[in-house]
Amino acid sequence: MENTDQRHDSLDFVFEIYQKMKKNKVNLAYEGEITHQITKAFTSLTETNMSAEEDYNSVQKKVFHVMVECLQNISKHADQRSVVSSKDGRGLFLVSKGEEEYNVTTGNVIKNDKVESLKKMLENINNLDKEGLKQIYKQQIKEGRLSEKDGAGLGFIDIARKTGEKLIYSFLPIDDESSFFILISTISRKKL
Amino acid sequence: MEVIKIKGTDDTPNVVLDAETGTFEISGRSLPEDVAAFYEPIIEWLDLYAKSPMAKTVFDFKLEYFNTASSKLLLDVLLKLEDMADDGNEVLVRWHYPDDDEDMQEAGEEYADIVDVPFEQVSYTVD
Fold this sequence. Notes:
In chain A, 51% of the residues lie in helices and 23% in strands. Chain A has helices spanning 4-23, 36-52, 57-77, 112-126, 130-144, 154-163; strands at 26-33, 90-97, 101-111, 168-173, 178-188.
């Protein structure tokens, strides 16, 4: 049987999470496998909230775009897979809403041997301006057709283009084999 | 030829391919769970149609949203139309976009840059 101390710990933990979510204005938090159903549920939930909040149409569309690409990144590329079906990756997914902006955050496990190439890809995207992103998008969409895997990073390029912001990312070491990859995408709530 | 009519859902587009009436249309939202499987019959239909197309083929794209995974398959559809044009057939792509959606307008412009086929941008008002 659980002792009282442990029970108190878990109650504290719940309150702590709640407070931290409030403080960071998180209105959607999830950790688990990202299935197609989850993607549909989260996007439609957020759409309903946004139209109630009367965000600009263009902002709503951008948030929708970014959410879908972020969720699909986890689903396809996370190196921690679902126990039920290996086609679905697992990860952390957060949407927060401030006065000025929406933040869509993902966190997922990736193998260390992929970190360097992913870092390079993200750096490359962040170094491009609007025109450069457009060129690389066109190039990738053409090349992507030829390979089974996604044309390297089409989703990231799309996020950078739709938001007009730099991608914020970090790789935190877990152990010798894996790291935790965090990506934050920011969508301004002002009309662009 | 067999007619393709797929009713749109919240994650798959409405598709009409009808060589009798000359209706060729993909509209709505495109983020299918399995993009390749969704677009495969469409591509196959176009392959067949390309063997004896109508005097003029006008293909309408009227998408509200598509994800990057769909963007590659949409390019495949456009490349089929390009092949038809290359074979000397008259083809016109009409890319419809909501007048307040610059991203969708730009997506059309980019496709027009990539494929070599007559391309018309058509804006419409959303109420």
